Amino acid sequence: MTISAIEKTVIGSIDDIPLGEGRTFTVEDEMIAVFRLRDGSLRAVSAVCPHKGGPLADGQIDNRVVVCPLHLFSWDLATGCSQSGQPPITVYPVRVDGDLIVLGE
Amino acid sequence: MTQRLVVIGNGMAGARTVEEILARNGDFTVTMFGDEPYGNYNRIMLSNLLAGVETEEGIFLNDLSWYQENGITLNAGVKIARIDKDSKIVIAEDGSATPYDKLIIATGSYSWTPPMKNVHNPKRGYHQGVFAFRTLDDTRGMIRYARDHERAVVIGGGLLGLEAARGLQNHVSHVTLLHAMGHLMERQLDPKAGAMLQASVEGKLGIEVVTNAMTTEILGKDRVTGVKLADGRVIDCDVVVIAAGIRPNTEMVANSGLPVERGIVVDDQMRVEGEQDIYSVGECAQHRGNLYGLVAPLWDQAKVLADHITGTTEVAYTGSKLHTKLKVAGIDVASMGLIAPEHDTDEVVVYNEPKKGVYKQLIIRDDVLVGAVLVGDNSKAASLIQAFDRGTPLPEERAGLIFDLGGAVEESAEDMPDDAQVCNCNGVSKGAICGAVADGCKTVSGVMDKTRAGKGCGTCKPLVQRIVEWANGGAAEEDPAASWYVPGVPMPKPELMAAIRKYELKSVSSVFDTLVPGAQHDAKSKMGLASLLKMMWADEYVDERDARFINDRVHGNIQRDGTFSVVPQMKGGVTTPAQLRKIAEVAEKYDVPMVKLTGGQRIDLLGVPKEKLPAMWADLDMPSGYAYAKSFRTVKTCVGSDFCRFGVGDSTALGIALEERYQGLEGPGKMKLAVTGCPRNCAEAYVKDLGVVAIDGGRWEIYVGGAAGAHIRKGDLLTTVDSPEEVIRLTGRFLQYYRENANWLERTYSFVPRIGVDRIREIVVEDSDGIAAALDAAVEEAVQAYKDPWKERAEPATPGQFRTSLPLTVLPQVPVRS
Ligand SMILES: Cc1cc2nc3c(=O)[nH]c(=O)nc-3n(C[C@H](O)[C@H](O)[C@H](O)COP(=O)(O)OP(=O)(O)OC[C@H]3O[C@@H](n4cnc5c(N)ncnc54)[C@H](O)[C@@H]3O)c2cc1C
Ligand code: SF4
Ligand code: SF4
Ligand code: FES
């Protein structure tokens, strides 16, 4: 698990991400996929699939994992660990503040 | 309330049953008795132990700590002398009594000794130098003794005898195999196959085989010096191994007043006949008159017993179809069902190549495989066993059943090097698959999930299965999820559909919330559920965007670099100059890196960034051509009678009509169709999920279950009809039947052979089940509920629906051709 420290940044409004989907945001050159789970909470991970560069934000999620749309490898959203023998992805701290999405501690 | 469960017999069936009960969280305190002074070992591996390719530690299935960890009291080395069923206790030979609430008898078999003089020594049991081949102690004794001796004789030319002979070669310089019958393995092989096996065993292995050899006497006073046969011949030897058959261990049970015929008589719940609380599994049990001497049926029995005893009602063991596939003493042998025809009408297919030691025989009755024998080449065994087990109708081309015609030869898992690539789509090697097995993935689907092997085009799945089985030492564990429709909801399709109807579940999340323990959602199941619900509820289906795959969320096909392709609809492959002009203009305006004709007769605009999709659609103003989703895709057509000089039917018009009517229809897999104007088949209709061929006289043939993708299969003729209207009607009915009954991702090329084209014809054409009207109505409803998904081009369904998810860094680009 790798949690990279990013300065506290407001990256948008919660309305930017539909329930159950993900969107990509760029923060200081880092591409970050932010997902809104069905329970309302957020998860943020690196946006590029370490397998062959697939767009993880286009992937399908449940409350635990994201499945890359290209070859359907999956990663744990909480830890970034691969469930399918691939390298891990980076996990970023993220939370909802009012109706804003706040990235970083 | 916790009940006391006592198990007599700590062998393969007994221990497995306890494992299954533990897995079901059965509320029991378990006490086990085993005559042998060990934990539970894999008896099958004794052959390997004898052959020196396995160690003693390697053959234990559950060691003593397993019993401790699971709170099982194991009495190893304690033999039960009597069951007192009235006071519900078992009494051991050491006099101790143990009470039970439920009792399982799994005493297995003993090695049977044919009547012979001098085989027993009054003081020592077997005469010195004579061994049975059944237990770890037998095997140890045999190895110890054989080490210091030269010549061995094995009595019994069945499976076990052959294994023993092969193993003994490791320890002595000369082995003779004596078999009382006319040919080896006479219960599994016909005489020709038996002779072939004998030739291989003698030629390749150097084991001397004597058939029609009835042993009557063991020679030697203190120790063995030879054996004598009924015809007077004497064979010198100093070790004798008896492998002449097994008999169930039932004496103690019969003496305790329980019903014993050939074995302990049990019913379909493995309950001993007439008893409430006593069960029996394994080789000692007689079920519907049958005894089983292989492990596969025992596993089935163990499951049923565990289900039943932990409270699942309505489970029944209905018997097993026996098949064996093994290397007998290093030679491939497979056998299933009959070894000789029984009726005049039974069809026998034989291939015999003595020089290579290859022999194959099939017995076919009413197009169904009822028996097969293979010697020297097991490459087709897996598919034959499958056909035999399922009773599926065989293809007309019988040769394909015993040979790989033109196709790749089925590779043996063992012979492949570790770095050999198994899954070509996802680049997974044999080594990676074995690694996943070593890490604890014991099921084929588990390994496929972990490595993604077999998850591309799927052609390598059988090989993946063989490797997993091999890496597991013979058999992969069965995945309970294998029968589920989607991995995240523990139900097979019929049950799932019934539950969905019962609770009126119209959205994917409501299925998870209602039907999954803990209401755990599962990303990998969403697409399959969405498609099923849409099929079942048509326009009542509650669409949840997150249940859609990205392709369905943006109506494009995602490509390797995260861009999409736009495929304007072109029904039946027909377009107009105006449309072509528009497509060309749009392609230019948006700098589309590649414009390509697809296999389905459409124009593909490849490499379109997601955010450009809505604008492109608006400019194109043509509907999408369904190049994505598990749905009705396209109808390929030939020129047909309209222009072609050979055409006898208007294939183009019919193709367009079909596509018009069924566009967008969801299903468990893609549905690709074609209509061709004459049997010259220019539109390749014989290899489509549903293919229509115009024939002379204004009639149309309908083929189903064909494919020319990762699998190649010629479709089966469903029926011949008189009019295009009839084609359209039956197409809808067939597709609906497929939609309702196929497994998730099961294309028609597996669905049709699984159900059998005759059966499908009965239902779809002849309406023998009386459901045709319902199928027609259901597909009509689906057609009515169709909405053009491209409507979203004007008004995005969700915020940021078309925002790029692509990173800024440059990714590998789709190669651009000018
Ligand atoms: C060498 C060899 C190779 C084989 N190869 C294959 C193969 O390749 N494929 C295949 O499918 N099958 C094979 N088999 C058969 C397979 O091993 C058996 O079908 C299986 O072990 C039967 O399981 P079971 O639990 O019914 O009996 P067992 O495994 O025999 O277990 C019964 C146990 O009960 C104990 N017991 C008996 N009576 C009492 C009593 N009164 N009190 C306490 N304990 C008692 C016995 O000591 C024994 O440990 C092979 C067998 C042998 C011997
Ligand atoms: S289309 Fe099939 S064969 Fe080709 S890459 Fe994809 S999965 Fe593999
Ligand atoms: S299939 Fe027959 S009708 Fe169609 S193009 Fe070919 S030859 Fe002509
Ligand atoms: S690129 Fe993500 S799984 Fe292959």
TrEMBL record, chain A:
<keyword id="KW-0479">Metal-binding</keyword>
<feature type="domain" description="Rieske">
    <location>
        <begin position="9"/>
        <end position="103"/>
    </location>
</feature>
<dbReference type="InterPro" id="IPR036922">
    <property type="entry name" value="Rieske_2Fe-2S_sf"/>
</dbReference>
<dbReference type="GO" id="GO:0016705">
    <property type="term" value="F:oxidoreductase activity, acting on paired donors, with incorporation or reduction of molecular oxygen"/>
</dbReference>
<dbReference type="InterPro" id="IPR017941">
    <property type="entry name" value="Rieske_2Fe-2S"/>
</dbReference>
<keyword id="KW-0411">Iron-sulfur</keyword>
<dbReference type="Pfam" id="PF00355">
    <property type="entry name" value="Rieske"/>
</dbReference>
<dbReference type="GO" id="GO:0051537">
    <property type="term" value="F:2 iron, 2 sulfur cluster binding"/>
</dbReference>
<keyword id="KW-0001">2Fe-2S</keyword>
<dbReference type="GO" id="GO:0046872">
    <property type="term" value="F:metal ion binding"/>
</dbReference>
<dbReference type="GO" id="GO:0004497">
    <property type="term" value="F:monooxygenase activity"/>
</dbReference>
<keyword id="KW-0408">Iron</keyword>
<protein>
    <submittedName>
        <fullName>Putative nitrite reductase small subunit</fullName>
    </submittedName>
</protein>
UniProtKB/TrEMBL annotation, chain B:
<keyword id="KW-0560">Oxidoreductase</keyword>
<keyword id="KW-0004">4Fe-4S</keyword>
<dbReference type="Pfam" id="PF04324">
    <property type="entry name" value="Fer2_BFD"/>
</dbReference>
<dbReference type="GO" id="GO:0050660">
    <property type="term" value="F:flavin adenine dinucleotide binding"/>
</dbReference>
<keyword id="KW-0411">Iron-sulfur</keyword>
<keyword id="KW-0285">Flavoprotein</keyword>
<dbReference type="InterPro" id="IPR006067">
    <property type="entry name" value="NO2/SO3_Rdtase_4Fe4S_dom"/>
</dbReference>
<dbReference type="GO" id="GO:0051539">
    <property type="term" value="F:4 iron, 4 sulfur cluster binding"/>
</dbReference>
<keyword id="KW-0534">Nitrate assimilation</keyword>
<dbReference type="Pfam" id="PF18267">
    <property type="entry name" value="Rubredoxin_C"/>
</dbReference>
<feature type="binding site">
    <location>
        <position position="682"/>
    </location>
    <ligand>
        <name>[4Fe-4S] cluster</name>
    </ligand>
</feature>
<comment type="pathway">
    <text>Nitrogen metabolism; nitrate reduction (assimilation).</text>
</comment>
<dbReference type="GO" id="GO:0098809">
    <property type="term" value="F:nitrite reductase activity"/>
</dbReference>
<keyword id="KW-0408">Iron</keyword>
<dbReference type="Pfam" id="PF07992">
    <property type="entry name" value="Pyr_redox_2"/>
</dbReference>
<feature type="domain" description="BFD-like [2Fe-2S]-binding">
    <location>
        <begin position="422"/>
        <end position="469"/>
    </location>
</feature>
<dbReference type="InterPro" id="IPR017121">
    <property type="entry name" value="Nitrite_Rdtase_lsu"/>
</dbReference>
<dbReference type="InterPro" id="IPR036136">
    <property type="entry name" value="Nit/Sulf_reduc_fer-like_dom_sf"/>
</dbReference>
<dbReference type="InterPro" id="IPR007419">
    <property type="entry name" value="BFD-like_2Fe2S-bd_dom"/>
</dbReference>
<feature type="binding site">
    <location>
        <position position="644"/>
    </location>
    <ligand>
        <name>[4Fe-4S] cluster</name>
    </ligand>
</feature>
<protein>
    <recommendedName>
        <fullName>assimilatory sulfite reductase (ferredoxin)</fullName>
        <ecNumber>1.8.7.1</ecNumber>
    </recommendedName>
</protein>
<comment type="similarity">
    <text>Belongs to the nitrite and sulfite reductase 4Fe-4S domain family.</text>
</comment>
